[in-house]
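Next up, sample data:
>
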Amino acid sequence: MNKGLVIAFCIGLPAAALLTHFVTAEPAQPQPEAKPITVEQRKDVVRFDNGVTVFLEGDERIEVEAQVLGGQTRLLEFLVVGAGGPVHEALFVAGARARDLHQGLELLGLRCGQKKLRFRGDDQTPDGPAVDIAVQWKDKDGKAESCPVEDWLYDTIDDAKVARGPWTFTGSLSEFRDDLGREIYAADTRDSIVGLWRDPSCVIDNPREHGAIPDVYIPNPEAGLLPPPQTVVTLVFRAHKG
C-alpha cells in the first residue's frame, strides 16, 4: 500500500449521534457539498469520522459501527440503512455515510460494477466484485460473537435460513439535481447502504435468486444468538476470496 496515503473526506455528524436519533430521523436531504478537508492517515489504517474504519494490511477489511433494529413494520427490503433511511424495513442502521463505505471498498482494491441496476427489483444479476459481510457483537455476558450476516436472515419463499455467500459491490449511482446544479451520490441522499430487494441506489446489493422480489426476507427466527434491538454491533466487509 502507498505509505503516503492521504484521504479526503467531509466533516459530518458523529456516528453515535446519528445512531441515537435513528428512530425519528427524517429522510436525508441533499445539502450543498461541504469543502473537504484532507487528513493524513497511517499507512495501514484509514479512519473516517463516522464509524467507518478501513484496515489495509494483514486482514484487510472495513469495520462499520451499527445497531440492530427491531419492531419492523414490514418485511426487510434493506440489510443496512443510514439514520435517515427506511429503518422500518432494515435489519441494521449505521451512522456511516454510504460514500465512505464505497471509498473504503476502493481502498481494498475493489472497483464497483459498471452495469447499473435499472430499477428496484431489477431481475438482472447485480454487477460488481463480490464482498463478504460478517457481524460482530457481544452477548449478554460480554462474550465476543461473530458470524456471516446471512445467518441472521430468513428467506420466506425457501422457508429457510439464507445460504451463506457474498454480496455485490454495485456502487450506487450519481443523479443530477437541477435544484442543486450538480450530481449527487444516490446512496447518501437516500441512506440506502446494503440492499436485500435490489435497489440501484445501494452501495452493495443482493445477488441471490430472490433479490428481485420484494417482501421476501425477515430476521431469522432460528438465530438463537440474535441480540435484542439497539444492540451495538460491528459490520465487517471483506473482499470475497474464491
In short: The CA atoms of residues 153 and 219 lie 5 Å apart. The helical segments are 15-20, 98-107, 186-190. Residues 64-239 form one domain.
